[in-house]
Amino acid sequence: MISLRDVTVSVPAPTADAPDRVLLERISLELTESRIAVIGANGSGKSTLLRLLNGLRAPTSGSVLVDGLDTVKDAKRVRSLVGFVFTDPLSQLLMSTPVEDVELSLRATVRDRKERTRRAQELLDSRGIGHVANQSVYDLSGGERQLVALTSVLAVGPRVVVADEPTTLLDLRNRLMLRRILAGLTQQVIFSTHDLDLAREADRVIVIEYGKVLADGDPTDAVAAYEDAMVSS
Ligand SMILES: Nc1ncnc2c1ncn2[C@@H]1O[C@H](COP(=O)(O)OP(=O)(O)OP(=O)(O)O)[C@@H](O)[C@H]1O
Protein backbone atom coordinates (compact mmCIF):
# COMPACT_ATOMS: atom_id res chain seq x y z
CA MET A 1 0.00 0.00 0.00
CA ILE A 2 1.13 3.54 -0.73
CA SER A 3 0.74 6.17 2.00
CA LEU A 4 1.36 9.88 1.72
CA ARG A 5 1.94 11.46 5.10
CA ASP A 6 1.51 15.21 5.28
CA VAL A 7 3.36 15.71 2.01
CA THR A 8 4.29 19.14 0.73
CA VAL A 9 6.22 19.74 -2.49
CA SER A 10 7.62 23.18 -3.15
CA VAL A 11 10.17 24.63 -5.55
CA PRO A 12 12.34 27.71 -5.13
CA ALA A 13 10.94 30.91 -6.60
CA PRO A 14 12.79 32.31 -9.63
CA THR A 15 13.92 35.31 -7.58
CA ALA A 16 15.52 35.12 -4.14
CA ASP A 17 13.13 37.61 -2.55
CA ALA A 18 9.94 35.70 -3.54
CA PRO A 19 8.52 32.84 -1.45
CA ASP A 20 8.92 29.22 -2.62
CA ARG A 21 6.22 28.00 -4.96
CA VAL A 22 4.07 25.30 -3.36
CA LEU A 23 3.04 22.60 -5.88
CA LEU A 24 1.36 20.26 -3.40
CA GLU A 25 0.34 21.23 0.11
CA ARG A 26 0.00 18.92 3.12
CA ILE A 27 -1.43 15.90 1.33
CA SER A 28 -2.22 12.78 3.33
CA LEU A 29 -3.64 9.77 1.50
CA GLU A 30 -3.83 6.01 1.93
CA LEU A 31 -4.00 4.49 -1.55
CA THR A 32 -5.62 1.10 -1.10
CA GLU A 33 -8.14 0.71 -3.94
CA SER A 34 -7.35 -1.33 -7.02
CA ARG A 35 -8.11 1.47 -9.53
CA ILE A 36 -7.54 5.08 -8.49
CA ALA A 37 -7.97 8.03 -10.85
CA VAL A 38 -6.43 11.44 -10.20
CA ILE A 39 -8.14 14.31 -11.98
CA GLY A 40 -7.81 18.09 -11.94
CA ALA A 41 -7.23 21.15 -14.08
CA ASN A 42 -4.01 21.71 -16.05
CA GLY A 43 -1.24 22.60 -13.65
CA SER A 44 -3.19 21.52 -10.55
CA GLY A 45 -0.47 19.10 -9.42
CA LYS A 46 -1.53 15.66 -10.73
CA SER A 47 1.81 14.71 -12.31
CA THR A 48 3.66 16.00 -9.27
CA LEU A 49 1.49 13.78 -7.07
CA LEU A 50 2.00 10.70 -9.28
CA ARG A 51 5.76 11.23 -9.47
CA LEU A 52 5.92 11.10 -5.68
CA LEU A 53 4.54 7.55 -5.71
CA ASN A 54 7.66 5.87 -7.08
CA GLY A 55 10.23 8.38 -5.94
CA LEU A 56 10.62 10.23 -9.24
CA ARG A 57 10.02 13.29 -7.10
CA ALA A 58 10.88 13.67 -3.43
CA PRO A 59 8.60 15.44 -0.97
CA THR A 60 9.92 18.73 0.39
CA SER A 61 8.38 17.73 3.72
CA GLY A 62 6.39 14.72 4.86
CA SER A 63 6.95 11.23 3.52
CA VAL A 64 5.69 8.74 0.96
CA LEU A 65 5.76 5.07 1.93
CA VAL A 66 5.32 2.06 -0.36
CA ASP A 67 4.60 -1.05 1.70
CA GLY A 68 6.38 0.76 4.52
CA LEU A 69 9.43 1.66 2.39
CA ASP A 70 10.35 5.32 2.16
CA THR A 71 10.47 6.48 -1.48
CA VAL A 72 13.60 8.55 -0.81
CA LYS A 73 15.58 6.23 1.50
CA ASP A 74 14.59 3.00 -0.28
CA ALA A 75 14.39 4.48 -3.79
CA LYS A 76 15.72 1.43 -5.67
CA ARG A 77 13.36 -1.06 -4.04
CA VAL A 78 10.44 1.34 -4.45
CA ARG A 79 11.14 1.71 -8.19
CA SER A 80 10.89 -2.05 -8.60
CA LEU A 81 7.58 -2.14 -6.73
CA VAL A 82 5.98 0.83 -8.45
CA GLY A 83 6.24 1.10 -12.24
CA PHE A 84 5.67 4.43 -13.94
CA VAL A 85 4.15 4.94 -17.40
CA PHE A 86 4.70 8.43 -18.82
CA THR A 87 2.26 10.34 -21.03
CA ASP A 88 4.83 10.34 -23.83
CA PRO A 89 6.30 6.83 -24.03
CA LEU A 90 9.32 8.03 -26.02
CA SER A 91 10.58 9.70 -22.87
CA GLN A 92 10.91 6.30 -21.19
CA LEU A 93 11.90 3.92 -24.01
CA LEU A 94 15.64 3.70 -23.45
CA MET A 95 16.59 1.25 -26.17
CA SER A 96 16.21 1.54 -29.93
CA THR A 97 13.83 -1.40 -30.43
CA PRO A 98 10.92 -2.79 -28.37
CA VAL A 99 12.55 -6.17 -27.81
CA GLU A 100 15.73 -4.53 -26.48
CA ASP A 101 13.72 -2.26 -24.22
CA VAL A 102 11.79 -5.15 -22.66
CA GLU A 103 15.05 -7.16 -22.39
CA LEU A 104 16.52 -4.30 -20.38
CA SER A 105 13.63 -4.52 -17.92
CA LEU A 106 14.20 -8.29 -17.59
CA ARG A 107 17.92 -7.92 -16.87
CA ALA A 108 17.53 -8.13 -13.10
CA THR A 109 15.48 -11.33 -13.20
CA VAL A 110 16.60 -13.28 -16.30
CA ARG A 111 20.36 -13.73 -16.46
CA ASP A 112 20.74 -15.70 -19.67
CA ARG A 113 20.77 -13.38 -22.70
CA LYS A 114 19.05 -15.74 -25.14
CA GLU A 115 16.37 -16.56 -22.60
CA ARG A 116 15.89 -12.83 -22.00
CA THR A 117 15.30 -12.21 -25.71
CA ARG A 118 12.88 -15.13 -25.91
CA ARG A 119 10.97 -13.91 -22.87
CA ALA A 120 10.89 -10.30 -24.15
CA GLN A 121 9.48 -11.47 -27.50
CA GLU A 122 6.90 -13.57 -25.66
CA LEU A 123 5.77 -10.59 -23.56
CA LEU A 124 5.46 -8.39 -26.66
CA ASP A 125 3.50 -11.17 -28.40
CA SER A 126 1.14 -11.38 -25.44
CA ARG A 127 0.32 -7.66 -25.85
CA GLY A 128 -0.29 -8.11 -29.58
CA ILE A 129 2.82 -6.14 -30.63
CA GLY A 130 5.25 -8.97 -31.28
CA HIS A 131 5.38 -8.05 -34.98
CA VAL A 132 7.10 -4.72 -34.20
CA ALA A 133 9.64 -6.21 -31.76
CA ASN A 134 12.66 -5.34 -33.91
CA GLN A 135 11.42 -2.09 -35.42
CA SER A 136 12.88 1.27 -34.39
CA VAL A 137 10.82 2.75 -31.53
CA TYR A 138 10.71 5.98 -33.58
CA ASP A 139 8.80 4.16 -36.34
CA LEU A 140 6.06 2.86 -34.04
CA SER A 141 2.61 4.38 -33.78
CA GLY A 142 1.65 6.19 -30.58
CA GLY A 143 -0.46 3.23 -29.46
CA GLU A 144 2.33 0.72 -30.16
CA ARG A 145 4.82 2.87 -28.25
CA GLN A 146 2.48 3.13 -25.28
CA LEU A 147 2.07 -0.66 -25.28
CA VAL A 148 5.84 -1.20 -25.47
CA ALA A 149 6.34 1.19 -22.55
CA LEU A 150 3.69 -0.64 -20.54
CA THR A 151 5.18 -4.05 -21.43
CA SER A 152 8.63 -2.87 -20.29
CA VAL A 153 7.23 -1.51 -17.04
CA LEU A 154 5.32 -4.75 -16.35
CA ALA A 155 8.39 -6.87 -17.18
CA VAL A 156 10.04 -5.58 -14.01
CA GLY A 157 7.18 -7.20 -12.06
CA PRO A 158 5.82 -4.16 -10.21
CA ARG A 159 3.05 -4.42 -7.67
CA VAL A 160 1.63 -1.03 -8.64
CA VAL A 161 1.42 0.69 -12.04
CA VAL A 162 1.31 4.49 -11.98
CA ALA A 163 0.30 6.02 -15.32
CA ASP A 164 0.39 9.74 -16.05
CA GLU A 165 -2.34 10.52 -18.58
CA PRO A 166 -1.60 7.29 -20.48
CA THR A 167 -4.35 7.76 -23.08
CA THR A 168 -3.88 11.47 -23.85
CA LEU A 169 -1.80 11.07 -27.01
CA LEU A 170 -3.81 8.18 -28.40
CA ASP A 171 -6.62 8.04 -30.97
CA LEU A 172 -9.96 6.55 -29.99
CA ARG A 173 -9.12 2.97 -31.01
CA ASN A 174 -5.82 2.93 -29.12
CA ARG A 175 -7.40 4.70 -26.17
CA LEU A 176 -10.05 2.00 -25.90
CA MET A 177 -7.42 -0.71 -26.27
CA LEU A 178 -5.21 0.77 -23.54
CA ARG A 179 -8.23 1.20 -21.28
CA ARG A 180 -9.05 -2.49 -21.75
CA ILE A 181 -5.48 -3.50 -20.97
CA LEU A 182 -5.22 -1.30 -17.88
CA ALA A 183 -8.59 -2.61 -16.68
CA GLY A 184 -7.34 -6.20 -17.03
CA LEU A 185 -4.10 -5.77 -15.06
CA THR A 186 -3.80 -7.64 -11.79
CA GLN A 187 -1.65 -4.82 -10.36
CA GLN A 188 -3.04 -1.81 -8.56
CA VAL A 189 -3.32 1.01 -11.13
CA ILE A 190 -3.13 4.68 -10.16
CA PHE A 191 -3.55 7.03 -13.11
CA SER A 192 -4.18 10.66 -13.94
CA THR A 193 -6.55 11.61 -16.69
CA HIS A 194 -8.60 14.39 -18.23
CA ASP A 195 -11.05 11.74 -19.51
CA LEU A 196 -13.87 11.92 -16.98
CA ASP A 197 -15.56 8.77 -18.33
CA LEU A 198 -12.36 6.86 -17.69
CA ALA A 199 -12.14 8.40 -14.20
CA ARG A 200 -15.69 7.31 -13.42
CA GLU A 201 -14.68 3.67 -14.08
CA ALA A 202 -12.16 3.79 -11.21
CA ASP A 203 -12.89 2.60 -7.67
CA ARG A 204 -11.86 5.95 -6.27
CA VAL A 205 -11.28 9.42 -7.72
CA ILE A 206 -9.02 12.03 -6.18
CA VAL A 207 -9.51 15.60 -7.39
CA ILE A 208 -6.50 17.92 -7.13
CA GLU A 209 -7.02 21.66 -7.25
CA TYR A 210 -4.23 24.20 -6.69
CA GLY A 211 -2.05 21.52 -5.08
CA LYS A 212 -4.67 20.38 -2.57
CA VAL A 213 -7.24 17.58 -2.46
CA LEU A 214 -10.56 19.13 -3.47
CA ALA A 215 -12.54 15.87 -3.38
CA ASP A 216 -11.72 12.22 -2.78
CA GLY A 217 -13.84 9.09 -2.84
CA ASP A 218 -16.80 7.86 -4.82
CA PRO A 219 -16.08 8.48 -8.53
CA THR A 220 -19.49 9.96 -9.39
CA ASP A 221 -19.41 12.40 -6.47
CA ALA A 222 -15.76 13.35 -6.97
CA VAL A 223 -16.18 13.97 -10.72
CA ALA A 224 -19.29 16.06 -9.97
CA ALA A 225 -17.30 18.12 -7.43
CA TYR A 226 -14.60 18.70 -10.07
CA GLU A 227 -17.15 19.74 -12.69
CA ASP A 228 -18.78 22.15 -10.20
CA ALA A 229 -15.37 23.65 -9.35
CA MET A 230 -14.52 24.10 -13.03
CA VAL A 231 -17.85 25.74 -13.86
CA SER A 232 -17.73 28.14 -10.90
CA SER A 233 -14.09 29.18 -11.31
N1 LIG B 1 10.31 21.42 -11.15
C1 LIG B 1 9.40 22.39 -11.21
N2 LIG B 1 9.73 23.67 -11.02
C2 LIG B 1 8.82 24.64 -11.06
N3 LIG B 1 7.50 24.43 -11.27
C3 LIG B 1 7.11 23.17 -11.47
C4 LIG B 1 8.02 22.08 -11.45
N4 LIG B 1 7.33 20.94 -11.68
C5 LIG B 1 6.04 21.31 -11.84
N5 LIG B 1 5.91 22.65 -11.73
C6 LIG B 1 4.66 23.42 -11.81
O1 LIG B 1 3.75 22.84 -10.89
C7 LIG B 1 2.42 22.92 -11.38
C8 LIG B 1 1.81 21.54 -11.34
O2 LIG B 1 2.43 20.76 -12.36
P1 LIG B 1 1.91 19.30 -12.72
O3 LIG B 1 2.70 18.84 -13.88
O4 LIG B 1 1.91 18.47 -11.49
O5 LIG B 1 0.40 19.61 -13.15
P2 LIG B 1 -0.68 18.67 -13.81
O6 LIG B 1 -1.90 18.75 -12.96
O7 LIG B 1 -0.13 17.32 -14.06
O8 LIG B 1 -0.96 19.43 -15.19
P3 LIG B 1 -1.42 18.91 -16.66
O9 LIG B 1 -2.85 18.45 -16.53
O10 LIG B 1 -1.30 20.15 -17.47
O11 LIG B 1 -0.47 17.83 -17.07
C9 LIG B 1 2.51 23.52 -12.77
O12 LIG B 1 2.18 24.87 -12.71
C10 LIG B 1 3.97 23.33 -13.15
O13 LIG B 1 4.42 24.36 -14.01
Automatic annotation (TrEMBL):
Pfam families: ABC_tran. GO terms for molecular function: ATP binding; ATP hydrolysis activity; ATPase-coupled transmembrane transporter activity. It comes from the Bacteria. InterPro entries: AAA+_ATPase, ABC_transporter-like_ATP-bd, ABC_transpr_CbiO/EcfA_su, ECF_ABC_transporter_ATP-bd, P-loop_NTPase. Keywords: ATP-binding, Nucleotide-binding, Transport. Gene3D superfamilies: P-loop containing nucleotide triphosphate hydrolases (3.40.50.300). GO terms for cellular component: ATP-binding cassette (ABC) transporter complex. Residues 2-233 form the ABC transporter domain. Belongs to the ABC transporter superfamily. This is Cobalt ABC transporter ATP-binding protein. It comes from Tessaracoccus flavescens.
